[in-house]
Amino acid sequence: MARVFIPATLRARCDGRSEVEVEGTTLRQIVENLDAACPGIAARILEGDAVRPDLALAVNGVVGAEGLLERVPDGAEIQIMPAIAGGGAG
Amino acid sequence: MQAVRYARPSSVEEAVDLLEQGGDRARVLAGGTDLIVLARERRIDVDLFVDVKALEPLTAIRYDPADGLAIGAAAPCYRIAADPAVQEHYPCLIDCATLIGGVAIQGRASLGGNLCNASPAGDGIPALIALGTTVEIAGPKGRRTVAAEAFCTGPGRNVLTSGEFVVALRAPPPSDRAGAAFRRFIPRGEMDIAVTNAAVHLRFDGDRVASARVAVGAVAPMPLLVEEAGAALAGTPLSEATIAAAAAAARAAARPIDDMRGTVKQRRHLAGVLVTRCIRIAAERAGVQP
Amino acid sequence: MVTAEKPYKVVGTRPIRPDGTDKVTGRANYGADIRLPGMLYGRVKRSPIAHGKIKRIDASKALALPGVRAVMTAEDLPRKGRREFAPLGSVKISLATLSGNVMARDKVRYEGHAVAAVCATDPHVAEDALDLIEVEYEELPPVLHADEAMLASAPLIDEELHTREMATGESAEEPSNVAMHFVTEMGDVEAGFAEAEIVLERSFKTKMVHQGYIEPHNATAFWRHDGGLEIWCSTQATFVMRDHLAGLLEHPVSKIRVTPQEIGGGFGGKISVYLEPLAAVLSRKTGKPVKMTLTRDEVFRATGPTSGTAIRVKLGAKRDGTLVAAEGELVYEAGAFPGSPVAAGVRCIFTAYAIPNQRIDGYDVLVNKPKVQPYRAPGASAACFATDSVMDELAERLDLDPIALRLKNAAVEGTRSADGAAFGVIGNRDCLQAIQSSPHYRSELQGPNRGRGVAHGYWYNAGLESSAYASVNSDGTVALVLGSPDIGGTRASIAMQLAETLGIPAERVIPQVVDTDSVGFTSVTGGSRTAFAGGWAAHEAGLDLRQQLAARAAKIWGVEAEQVRYRDDAVIVGPAGEDGGERSITFTELAAKLARTGGMIVGRADSNHASAAPTFATHVVDVEVDPETGKVEILRYTAAQDVGTAIHPSYVEGQIQGGVSQGVGWALNEEYRFDEKGRMENASFLDYRMPTALDLPMIETVLVEVPNPGHPYGVRGVGEVPIVPPLAAVANAVHAATGHRFTELPISPAAVLEKLLPGEE
After folding, report:
1. In a domain, C6, yes or no
2. N or C: which end of chain B has fewer CB within 10 A?
């Protein structure tokens, strides 16, 4: 079971909830099961077979490198956030 | 930068000929710290550089107690700043020779070049005006002299005509109870162009100011001699009231512009601040407590 | 000053940097040093207007000039779709944006926008040719400020751009200059403010500022007849460059090799492509190598500054200082194409503090100015300026010590930020306490016109992919091959981590940054990730070497590999031999035997760890304000930062001092100035007014070390967060000195005089 934090503008699809609990051991399963709970939300998160280029899914606050293959441990928290870059320091 | 020709004349006359033949597109090259930048950025078109650094009268620095100081127009700032006579008798020139550009620039840049560049903010010019410097000019019709305050005629413009160039800057001999100072304001600690600058020369007779010359820069199309400010100081002992009157005269004479380096209000205000500061330093250098 | 004792032999020491001698003797090779046989020189023709349609480009006169070999325009680049992307770390970049920015197509969007490029046998001829390229424009009214750009009546910079809602991915019906809207919300903001006993709401503005790296962009390209494309350039990201070129030129990645030269500073501004695709096309047209170098003027007008911003912050607190609600609205100028760092601003604005109820809105807004690029902790500095100015006022109103107020509200392990993510192990309070107990903060500031300010900032840091190859040499040294261009001393700090893993002295590891064909994929040098991720890769390559060296010793001794152990002191030990004594061989002795016992050994790692950890910084600054001139002098500055583990403390201190210097410049004098037509007025170092050595005191540093549990040596990124607090710290100090709050930057002498002498004319 993982706890998905729903961004403000998507809460309408989830009966106004800011958090939804769903089953899944990979991000792909989490998104599929989230779509069952909040119909239509997957279409907002995915583009083709991947996460939208300007979005990122974080597992326990961390954006991994494996995309939808990322493992989701039991009890994990999932955040849906904008994909953002860093600068440089020299 | 475009391809250019380069000449290094061996006499003043040869330099005059080259400049006259070259017309507008021939330029005198002394330190080149303004000229080469302008040419590289294509803000001016140049066909010929006439390098005057081989001409002895343009590089010599001579001091004589009776005649005063003659600085060759191409003498670099580091030599002016290191000259014992300038250090002793004209500390006001040290003020500017040590802050035009950084150390590397001072190895090349000259006060003559700073004057000829005729920037309204030129850091060498107010001191030359305050000291009562005359500018010695060579040209096709021979030599002539012009007072420093009459040399610049507008931003980047001066009194030189075709074939003419500046040979030397002549400052009058120092007086016993006299002092002068130059100050500028820049937002940083160095490597910047003055938002406003000022210079003051004071000559005392006892406690009384016998004569005063006040110059301000970057507040008009060219550096200004503010005669009203000098008049406010002359004839009486220095006091807070006369200093304030001189500062007010400097502010009133200022007719600055707003640009990326400063605002009208800021520049007018700074003209008063800097004139006040220069008066106090000049008096101290003259041995008078303001 | 370093606060923690460490159990390491190499990590935490200060060896001489491997690239130091070449740099101080002028021998290091930069992009401008490239000379190839038959090389041509390219220049870029740029738009003199900020906004207009390109009606006609006629290069015939330029092509007729003797020495000119080719001219290119956007017609020579493939047209890219808006939703075609190229990767950049964890982000994807629109190829239409990249392509449109490197060369204008149909329309110019800012002064300095490239419209054509020319190459010739001589750089002077190329420069002369620029004037001979005729471009006819239909001038359009420029949009220069984000607030104007957001109005429905504003001229459209891109007629096909529709505001996209970040979270839903939905686009608005009508076109707009607002490219993106972000919302993050947590708790119940209305209820939070209702509960507050004091509410402060303030608005702030900052101007566009440039990274100000000393080396202008440069690129040399050689498009060989077999289709192989060689690029030599100054970049923070060779592999990103390769991928972006592949996308822009529709050329296979396998045909492109990018060789990084030494880099004279980047700070985020040397991630994007500018000259490389132009030089490549010119080389393809001529069959010769083409070199291009920007002038400083072009760097200012046509490469990325960071955004000008308008930020509104509302904070609600209890009388004891406990924050209960926060609201933020961030409007960031993207420049002429989408992509401001507003998302990072949204992520960072309140994250250092535990605030239960928050709502943050962010807008990415197009204006007719150069397209912004990342700049050191992109987006966070302006956000911190807003929040920590209000925090300072809150402390003043509640009569609380400013550090005590921040300590009361500091996020700790488990605190959630507005996006729902909870912090792991962090050194947030530790930084505040380090300043609270510092000699600087405990000293009394005396004298007129002086004031002290503090500010506190957060940055998240990145992980991403890095590779490392480590070959053991017969003399007992290790050649370490890396793909990360070194902008902050990372060759040294990564080599030190390999040396620590192997148990050998730092100088025995010889690091080198190589081209994209010579090492595995390595992401951008940026996001403060390089010492973290490069260190991970070097450590894993070292573990690989340890295992292989132990196996080789086992083979030599004729024992099982499991019986042999590589000790942390670089001695390999095995079971007792016939003489009864324990078998052992040192790393150096074994290195000498490798060639004749089976061959040399290479350790490899391609590592990708998502365990980067956030950092915090607390700064305190004393200033004196000249009441007659309005000039602000920095008297003393101390910066405390959670650096995880300081691998090479001197470089960590240098990073902090560098970030502070840039932040002070941003606070006091730096700004892009435009005239009413959108032409930049101060495109030179003289008039852009970055601080010089005379403008800053020695910046004191306090390295707080709270190791990152997600890294073998506890590394957190260090390079970016030091530029986050200075803007607010300086503004708060100027307030303390003058009694005036400055809500707009820069706090220039003219701006200070305006407050001090409101009446004078």
Report:
1. no
2. N
User: Do C621 and C518 sit in the same domain of this protein?
Assistant: no
Q: List the single best residue of C294, C628, C688 to mutate versus B (max B Cβ within 10 A).
A: C628
Strand partners, B168: B72, B136
Domain identity same for B185 and B274: yes
- Strands C162-165 and C178-186, by their bridges, are parallel
Query: What's chain C's average pLDDT?
Result: 96
Q: What Å distances lie between residue B277 and B193, B273, C24, C261, C391, CA to CA? A: 19, 6, 42, 51, 39
Number of domains in chain B: 3
- Contact yes or no for C495/C18 (Cβ under 8 A): yes
Give the three-class secondary structure for B15: helix
Q: For position B33, what pLDDT does the model report?
A: 95
Collapse the DSSP code of B190 into the 3-class scheme (helix H, G, I; strand E, B; otherwise coil) and give the result. coil
- Distance from the C285 Cα atom to the nearest Cα atom in chain A, whole angstroms: 34
Residues B103 and B16 in one domain: no
Q: Is C701 within a domain?
A: yes
Nearest residue in A to C613, CA atom: A62
Residue of B284, B278, B290, B154 whose CA lies nearest to B222: B154
Last residue of a domain, one of C249, C280, C302: C302
Bond prior to C746 in cis (omega within 30° of 0): yes
C189: pLDDT strictly greater than 80: yes
Distance CA B185, CA B272 (A): 12
The answer to whether the beta carbons of residues C495 and C504 sit under 8 Å apart is no
Provide the residue range defining the domain that includes C241: 34-140+215-264+270-302
| Helix H or strand E encompassing C185 | strand C178-186
Tell me how far apart the terminal alpha carbons of chain C are, to the nearest angstrom.
49
Flag whether residue C675 sits within 8 Å of chain B, measured between CB atoms: no
Look up tokens 């007659």; give the residue. C628
Domain that holds residue B38: 5-51
In chain B, which residues have their Cβ closer than 8 Å to the Cβ of C748? 187
Asked which of B117, B136, B171 is the last residue of a domain, the reply is B171
Which chain C residues touch A83 with a CB distance below 8 Å?
90-92, 343
Query: CA–CA separation, C661 vs C664, rounded Å?
Result: 5
Per DSSP bridges, beta strands C571-576 and C40-46 are unpaired
The closest alpha carbon to C653, from C603, C697, C704, C604, belongs to: C704
For residues B39 and B76, membership in a common domain is answered with no
Tell me the C-alpha distance between C100 and C158, whole Å: 11
Q: Which of C190, C720, C760, C761 is catalytic?
A: C720
Point out the residues of chain B with pLDDT beneath 50. Answer: none
This complex has an ipTM of 0.94
Identify whether residues C91 and C233 lie together within a single domain.
yes
Distances (CA, A) of A69 to B47, B113, B205, C60: 68, 70, 92, 55
C614-658 pLDDT per residue, tens = 999 999 999 999 999 999 999 999 999 999 999 999 999 999 999
Whether B213 and B200 have beta carbons less than 8 Å apart is answered as yes
Compute the distance between CA of residue A51 and CA of residue A56 in angstroms, rounded to an integer: 7
- The CB-side HSE value for C369 (13 A sphere, CA atoms) comes to 34
Q: Which residues contact B92 (CB under 8 A, 6 or more apart)?
A: B127, B130, B131, B180, B181, B182, B199, B201, B282
Q: Do chains A and B touch (3 or more CB pairs under 8 A)?
A: no
HEC states along C251-275?
A: CCHHHEEEEECECCCCCCCCCCCCC
- Amino acid A85: pLDDT: 60
Decide: C201 and C314 in contact? Cβ < 8 Å.
yes
d(CA B213, CA A69): 81
Domains of chain A (ranges; CATH) run: 2-82 (3.10.20.30)
